[in-house]
Design goal:
Helices cover 45% and strands 11% of the residues. It is globular, with a radius of gyration of 24 Å. By secondary structure, the protein is of the alpha/beta class. It has an 8-stranded parallel barrel with strand order 3-4-5-6-8-10-11-12, surrounded by 4 helices. It contains 16 helices and 12 strands. The structure holds D-xylose and nickel (II) ion (NI) (2 copies). One nickel (II) ion (NI) binds next to α9.
């Protein structure tokens, strides 16, 4: 059964190709250093966007035309969509996928029925995976769509909702484990608040800490050794999300003693909404040993919401890959296309063209970042810039050998200070040479 009969396996044709259904830069087995592109770029498809997205907006209905639209039985449609996902993955040569529990199987009238629906689709998925190189990058639970989560899930004012969310995450971790998932993601969909006038912030934060601790305990109990990831986002759907950026999440995880169990899943568009660049978030996570995985998409700098566009900006992809290379890679995380097509790109072939554009941008980013890193141009500039900490008083500061009294004495003797240029424009020009 083929859902996209007119789409071939996507070939690599090189930078001069004008074929929209061919890669210009992504060549899975091309070696960059000691690793293939495929191993550097652990691409993943996001089930919710690619398979479920109807491409509606607040002013109009969905425009997406999908080969499974005519199947009316929800379970039959769920199976067709999963089969279609595997066809897309195979044709693009993408080895990973991610889903929320409710993306892949419909809710039933009771939680028990919902779990049975999920089990049936999970079994179906496992059979599709068998004998293919396709793997689950991460699973997660949708704790934000259903009206029961109107006031949050782990941070709801209603303890019954906390319990329901716990049951749902328990199941989602078990399913992720069963499918061999290498990570499990927590994005705090409605874990935040609209107004402080009705909110017990202290209790909500403690409850979120309790919830994540219970998740860690359950994972240990069932032998799930995948990496837990927390995905920061500052707003949308709630006005204030608790997991607003890497720094906030890091502080939260430290407070609740969870840093040993969690890393970050970083999304470009979320960084932009937080008033950061993607590189800032990646760097902040990296230097704190918290860089786990990436949702590669891109936000519109003129719009204040999560537009989740395909990442096609080569400059940004280069700087992102520079962080990944300096992190020693992203495994067991990956690069998940948490991105959807624009409402006007509604044909099935746009799914392929969109992902090709994203994969090519990241392949170019990888090549540029590799060359930039190999050259050592930025690193040697930075080393030189901080050279004052390698000897003399700087080294004493770093070694913890001096305090304010000694520094005051030093400063009184050395109060004529000379600084050197930061050379920002020169450095931006260096990066551009590698694009
Ligand atoms: C929403 C988030 C979401 C997570 C998974 O903005 O990006 O899609 O990646 O729950
Ligand atoms: Ni995301
Ligand atoms: Ni997002």
């Amino acid at each position: 059964m083929s859902y996209f009969a007119d789409i071939p396996n996507i070939p690599y044709e090189g930078p001069d190709s004008t074929n929209p259904l061919a890669f210009k830069h992504y060549r899975a087995d091309e070696r960059i250093g000691s690793m293939t592109m495929q191993d550097h770029l652990r691409f993943s498809l996001a089930y919710w966007h690619t398979m479920n997205g109807r491409m509606s907006d607040p002013f109009g209905v969905g425009t997406a035309i999908r080969p499974w639209d005519s199947i009316t039985d929800p379970m039959d449609q769920a199976k067709a969509r999963m089969e279609a996902l595997f066809e897309i993955l195979q044709k693009l040569g993408v080895r990973y996928f991610c889903f929320h529990d409710r993306d892949i199987a419909p809710e039933g009238d009771t939680l028990a029925q919902t779990n049975r629906n999920l089990d049936e689709i999970v079994e179906f998925t496992k059979n599709l995976m068998d004998g293919t190189p396709i793997r689950l990058l991460w699973g997660t639970a949708c704790l934000f769509t259903h009206p029961r989560f109107v006031h949050g899930a782990a941070t709801s004012c209603n303890a019954d909702v906390f319990a329901y969310a716990a049951a749902q995450v328990k199941k989602a971790i078990e399913v992720t484990h069963y499918l061999g998932g290498t990570n499990y993601v927590f994005w705090g969909g409605r874990e935040g608040y609209e107004t402080l006038l009705n909110t017990d912030m202290g209790l909500e934060l403690d409850n979120l800490g309790r919830f994540l601790t219970m998740a860690v305990d359950h994972a240990r109990e069932i032998g799930f050794t995948g990496q837990f990831l927390i995905e920061p986002k500052p707003m949308e759907p709630t006005k204030h999300q608790y997991d607003s950026d890497v720094a906030a999440c890091h502080a939260f995880l430290q407070k609740y003693r969870l840093t040993d169990y969690f890393k970050m899943n970083l999304e470009q568009n979320h960084a932009v909404l937080a008033g950061h660049t993607f590189s800032h978030e990646l760097r902040y996570a990296r230097v704190n040993g918290m860089l786990g995985s990436m949702d590669v998409n891109q936000g519109d700098y003129l719009l204040g919401w999560d537009t989740d566009q395909m990442p096609t900006d080569i400059h940004e992809a280069t700087l992102a890959m520079y962080e990944v290379l300096n992190n020693g890679g992203i495994a067991p995380g990956g690069m998940n296309f948490d991105a959807h097509l624009r409402r006007g790109s509604f044909e099935p072939s746009d799914i392929f063209m969109g992902h090709i554009a994203g994969m090519d941008a990241y392949a170019r980013g990888l090549k540029s970042a590799w060359a930039l890193k190999e050259s050592g141009e930025l690193e040697s500039f930075i080393k030189e810039r901080y050279a004052s900490y390698e000897g003399g008083i700087g080294k004493q500061i770093v070694d913890g050998a001096v305090g304010f009294k000694e520094l005051e004495k030093y400063a009184l003797e050395h109060s004529q200070i000379t600084n050197t240029s930061g050379r920002q424009e020169m450095l931006e020009g260096i990066v551009n040479r590698y694009l």
